[in-house]
Amino acid sequence: MSKTSSLGIIIGNRDFFPDSLVERARLEIIEVFEKLDLHPVLLDPQDTKLGGVETYQEARKCADLFKKHREDIMGVLVLLPNFGDEKGVADTLKLANLDVPVLIQAYPDDLQKMNVVNRRDSWCGKISVCNNLYQYGIKYSLTTQHVVSPSDPTFQQDLLNFVSVCRVVKGLRNVRIGAIGARPGAFNTVRYSEKILQRHGVTVTTFDLSEILGRAEKLTEADAPVRQHLEKVQAYAPHGNAPNTAMIQIAKLDVVLQQYMEEYALDATAIQCWTSLQQNYGCNVCTSMSIMSENMLPSACEVDVTGTLSMYAMQLASNSPSALVDWNNNYADDPNKCVLFHCGNWAKSFLPDIEISNAPILGTSVGVENTYGALDGRTPAMPLTYGRISTDDPQGVIKAYLGEGELTDDPLQTFGNRAVAQIPDLQGLMQYVCRHGFEHHVVMNASKTAGILQEAFANYMGWEVYVHE
């Protein structure tokens, strides 16, 4: 059973309500978890009365169970088949001290069954439970509908979204990012605070680019790892006019990057992608970055550490790769469309026509022959979630903006990695980005996950979040 899909379950109970409600709720939620391929951690009926939690002693038993599964439990679901005991729920969470997201569910009453034998009063009980959690300082999430049955599709989508929230929170609190090389001197825009990130669980490990290039230069075409990585790169994307010498350089660099990722247990990287690489080594690192991002190890350009953190967060929310892009160009005179661009290192999930090529713009200063390894490809129409995490150093906080739109098939004749985005009130969004000092880099993901990210960032990470509607 996957550890990342385990949720603790607290079934609240009030003794003067019918026992059958608790019993049925336990069976129903187990069935729902099985359907959604989730793993429940909950009391057995012999542990407490029907496996519910009401008294302090029952809360202790449930908390002890959760502690035994601390490494597996990514979140807690509170079920209220009746009014429930708010102190029992709050005490369980306090005693377990898991510090994970919590989702509160409450059952609806049936208008035809409002007698003593069937009445639930969960509508009211949910308010009481939330009130107590608020008093205890325990963060929690709510279902879309105030009361809803676990068998309802609305609840099941809420539950899956909650699992995604849990995945984002757990990932962000433990992420390790490699900052490889110094940021390009002209890019003040990607400056950030390691100290602020560390306070939120984000660890940044720095590496001098010369260490990477030095180790790569010691490798030869005859080395087995180089041959293996050359085959991997060639299988990843067509290489068009890229000469064999450039492909070998790319493969050697790919070997070393993988070694560093494994040696330092890195989840993501931000790389000094120009111009030292081209001038001192002779190729672009874009292909390796694309391969990493496609394999859910996101990699961002220009040592944009908070950019790759944004990529990682969106990847956790959607279970799909992300890409770092520039807010780059207007799209003709359409106020709600723009061109997204990089030279480029996007995961090939975004590039059905992917090809290993060179970087014409960068080539004007370092020589096109030194820029092989950049990717060329156009992103077709697909869903879009976009956003950006940033450290606001003068304020000492982490802030973010998020939103959703669409990537379109509108004509676009240019080079590199490119896409056309359509975003409602794009001009208003650009006003917000500029007025609040955000970077020119933004992250895109082929999903609709802004709500998941907002809940994770704002509610559980405590970050300042703007959602563009």
From TrEMBL:
<keyword id="KW-0119">Carbohydrate metabolism</keyword>
<dbReference type="GO" id="GO:0008736">
    <property type="term" value="F:L-fucose isomerase activity"/>
</dbReference>
<dbReference type="GO" id="GO:0005737">
    <property type="term" value="C:cytoplasm"/>
</dbReference>
<dbReference type="InterPro" id="IPR009015">
    <property type="entry name" value="Fucose_isomerase_N/cen_sf"/>
</dbReference>
<feature type="domain" description="L-fucose isomerase C-terminal">
    <location>
        <begin position="340"/>
        <end position="467"/>
    </location>
</feature>
<keyword id="KW-0413">Isomerase</keyword>
<dbReference type="InterPro" id="IPR015888">
    <property type="entry name" value="Fuc_isomerase_C"/>
</dbReference>
<dbReference type="Pfam" id="PF02952">
    <property type="entry name" value="Fucose_iso_C"/>
</dbReference>
<dbReference type="GO" id="GO:0006004">
    <property type="term" value="P:fucose metabolic process"/>
</dbReference>
<protein>
    <submittedName>
        <fullName>Fucose isomerase</fullName>
    </submittedName>
</protein>
